[in-house]
Prior knowledge:
The chain has 15 helices and 21 strands. It has 502 residues and is α+β, with helices and mostly antiparallel strands. It comes from Rheinheimera riviphila. FAD binds at residues 15-18, 335, 348. Pfam families: Trp_halogenase.
Amino acid sequence: xxxxxxxxxxxxxxxxxxxxxxxxxxxxxxxxxxxxxxxxxxxxxxxxxxxxxxxxxxxxxxxxxxxxxxxxxxxxxxxxxxxxxxxxxxxxxxxxxxxxxxxxxxxxxxxxxxxxxxxxxxxxxxxxxxxxxxxxxxxxxxxxxxxxxxxxxxxxxxxxxxxxxxxxxxxxxxxxxxxxxxxxxxxxxxxxxxxxxxxxxxxxxxxxxxxxxxxxxxxxxxxxxxxxxxxxxxxxxxxxxxxxxxxxxxxxxxxxxxxxxxxxxxxxxxxxxxxxxxxxxxxxxxxxxxxxxxxxxxxxxxxxxxxxxxxxxxxxxxxxxxxxxxxxxxxxxxxxxxxxxxxxxxxxxxxxxxxxxxxxxxxxxxxxxxxxxxxxxxxxxxxxxxxxxxxxxxxxxxxxxxxxxxxxxxxxxxxxxxxxxxxxxxxxxxxxxxxxxxxxxxxxxxxxxxxxxxxxxxxxxxxxxxxxxxxxxxxxxxxxxxxxxxxxxxxxxxxxxxxxxx
Length: 502
């Protein structure tokens, strides 16, 4: 129902990455018209495994006015040019979902159609020969490059790896001077209006009561307000994404620091590797139905690049989304709104896109049902589109060494994903729908990287003779190779940021 009370006092429940991202953006944009209180307890740990991001992260930091070099220095961050997937096709195979463009765009026809014909002609080019970002990643290179000099081709696209705990602290130092009030304490009680069911206040164990007009649930997997209080409901996707457990452990750093994430498939799950300046973040994602905690731990510890710096920490989860991410006067941001495993580094992005969406729909003179419904519609679409992209990796695996992977190959998939795969397999076409997060190039790389090669290509390609096609491909390959070689080393770029924070 619509409410007509002006929204003046906003309470963010939970700190960590989600809470401080939310508080920082709200105070930056609306700090002169609303009051923001963030409630967090030093006694409650954060999940804190979200250390890899995707390129929209740059837009978020820019919206806050954060200096990139200071950010990398303070969070001990590194550059991320993509994610390398190892053993996802068959054991020993690898490919990369590299950020940015591949090849040269043509009207009405994506570049990969030209590559597809070159394959049919036996020209022997690798798809990633035409990705500047991939070439830079594998040579451990990075420099800011918007366009390739002398040609009308895009430069590097990138994101970051960083210490999520340090990022939360960095945002706290940013947000508090702008007016965010932090209240330390553990919530003992949530009060609701008897008539509307809206949350009216939270009461801490200390007895302090904090009232608000709008509450942002950043309590992580606890989902204190959106689920435990409002019983919003949950759509379970574990029949498509059966993993329900993760173990996380940092290890000592090794050189060179690779400017990309690794996702390494094992017989019963997959392992992430995220290089920071001071350590490497590692973890293994698996299903307790197929693999014991002890087996997962042994696999993880046997595949670290350096000495472990702690005991592996277990995280249990259920994949899916909250039926309403905005219910009554509570908006869920981060893990309280749903969980998608970190295979494509979308966790922090979903926090940021959720806060951006909230800003666009921020209620002024009360909460309108129409706004709340549209917010939820858009959130649902975003979650489902990312879900499909993650399922794609599992469905297209070609492993036969365990029941886990065989079951993933055989599973039914959402109709939206099945349609996309069918169109691509037949004609090579893939379309970005509305504001979908992942681009056509991202889909192409996973589809091709895991062995789904289309039967046909776009007829526009035939406007080039075989000789012209070969010249085009060779010239583009040479441009990418030479440009990548001329880039500075990744380590040199990190050194230019002032080294590690003390």
